[in-house]
Input
Amino acid sequence: MSNYADIVVIADQIKNDLRPITFELLGAATDLAKKLGVKVQAIVMGYELGDIPQTLFHYGANEVFVVDKPELAEYTTLTYRRAALAVLEAMERPPHILLCGATTIGRDLAPRIAAYFETGLTADCTELEIGDYEHKGKADPAKTGLHKDCLYAIRPSFGESLKARILGPWKNPQMATARVGTMMPNEPDNSRTGKIIPVSVNFDESDFRVSVEETVYEVSNTVDLTQAKVIVSGGFGLGSADGFDVVRDLSSAFADSAVGSSRKAVDAGWIPYAHQVGQSGKTVRPALYIALGISGAIQHRVGMSNSATIIAVNKDEDAPIFQFAHYGIVGDLYEVAPLLKERFKTAMAGDVNVAKVGG
Amino acid sequence: MSGYKIAVLIKQVPDTSSKAGVNPDGTVDRARAKKMLNPFDKFALQKALEVRAEHGGEIIAITMGPPPAKEILAEALEYGADKGYLLTDKRLAASDTLATAYALYSVVKYLGDVDIVFTGLQTTDGDTAQTGPQIAERMDVPQITYLEKLAVVDGKIHGVRVIEGGVQKLTTSMPALITVANSAKPLEHKRFHNVHSVKELLRNEEELANKIFTVNLDDISADSSRVGLVGSPTVVGKTWKLGEKGGSCALFKGDAVSVEVAELVDKLKADERGIEELVQ
Ligand SMILES: Cc1cc2nc3c(=O)[nH]c(=O)nc-3n(C[C@H](O)[C@H](O)[C@H](O)COP(=O)(O)OP(=O)(O)OC[C@H]3O[C@@H](n4cnc5c(N)ncnc54)[C@H](O)[C@@H]3O)c2cc1C
Ligand SMILES: Nc1ncnc2c1ncn2[C@@H]1O[C@H](COP(=O)(O)O)[C@@H](O)[C@H]1O
Output
């Protein structure tokens, strides 16, 4: 057995619908747990949770703590906080690492748990790793020294175009929230199973200071950018809302595709917010991302730079997007996009055999 | 006094849309950078103004930062806040969100009997959205994060909160802490009258000292071992410039567009990137 405590993931669910981030967190936790030789545990809170714990096993959990109570039918900060604390305090020792989603639930709950335990929490991580850390600074002698197998919580620092590794190895759990769309889920394995650990919780009257009148939740409402294999995005260079016709048209050349957008096009009212890619929109990593008339500002880039192949079309040769796209065309998108579509269709469709040679 | 005692937490951040202090590689030189009021905090200020307009009371803007952060307190007065508090202290340097939340909580406690604390959703520099909820934990009060709309009725806050794929409608007692979503109502323009009186105020040191207060950790009886490096459970270990990878864009230009497109697609095929499988 490893010397380390386990890795715990807090499942993110709304109305008993497990959010995709839960699977992403389990994927990240699986990688981290392998490196440390420990188990992946999940905490799921709610009411009438049914086979949700089984689903968590399929996606990588070894053990699932279940708090199933009528008081938890709707998410509220204080009731879920109490339930999470009940699970964490019942453990023999604090988890090595505790992960939540950078969602409206995770970002609401995680800071309260971290403040309660007075432990570190890194927001909105895009990468999680394990490694050693030597703290050389002597200003706080309690921190100085070598720390083995810490959580590397890595996130972009948007204001400064930097990526930063944040560490807090002095106290467990080392906590982080993960940005939606940045971690890779495991392939589900329906034969996987594990240990279910029911946990009871004693609510305090003060936990009910917030009451929920209604939760309006529509899964289908959201454009599923994060699941698409191909994203064709339009930016301010489109010049008008009608420009998105060209974007949609190119997108239609691909199976499993979706339309994305920069914030400036959203702010201009050309397309709804659900299509926005970037720091304050979605993080995506499709197989192919085509950017039409997008300059490539850092806030857009952090949302799409992990795409496997990026093609940019921009009439300005110096546009920053050409610094990180894999392929670029300098030209007017209104000329290029229709030709691209035609060429993709004629030169590529049905040509799978040729392409697969050696691959 | 009738009405509510409302605290609004605001922060001064580098203005990255300005060229000043932004290095060619995109990194920021904080000393030279132009500064501004964190845009997310304007939504918080607007909500405070709405509650006061309906129910009366007092709006106190609070910021923690170096002395120039006073500028945004004056700006908050221009928008209609009643008072400002600057917490400034060398011992606060290198505070992470837990330490920052403790320091700001200490200011709120020092003010006493605050009914509602409004914060922005997040800052453009720290960008964690954690400070608000961590203050709420210290205060032992309920919170509503991502709040878009609110109404205060009979001493209760009725709020609409944004969630993935929808909204949650909820009610909470006071005191409470609220983080305001950036999809909430934008801040209204400054009133000429306020701008004018702030201008006057800035010329009159004595009166200014009755509106904008500067405090340090000792003034507010905060524990200095809970802030700064010592009070912060996290540190920044290493940084990289974004975009050091890649940089090898195959760029097609200059020829007729149809030639560029053909060349690009040929190269995609030659590179065996598997794009063929995606075309329908
Ligand atoms: C806190 C914060 C959060 C942000 N979050 C996001 C976010 O989530 N997502 C996001 O995208 N942005 C975000 N931004 C905004 C970001 O900084 C940029 O302003 C935005 O991405 C620019 O959008 P754009 O590239 O469409 O527009 P522009 O920067 O105006 O670029 C338009 C481009 O189109 C090109 N062009 C014009 N006409 C044509 C044509 N006919 N053919 C080909 N090319 C043409 C131009 O050369 C130019 O490069 C955020 C900013 C801040 C401060
Ligand atoms: N130094 C500060 N002074 C005042 N308020 C702050 C400070 N830092 C954060 N806040 C508040 O907390 C919110 C969230 O900030 P952050 O956690 O940095 O994303 C901000 O929108 C502010 O309302």
The pocket of flavin-adenine dinucleotide (ligand 1) is lined by residues A 235-237, 262-265, 276-281, 293-295, 297, 299-300, 303, 313-316, 319, 332-334; B 124 (CB under 6 Å). Confidence is low (pLDDT under 50) at residues 351-359 of chain A.
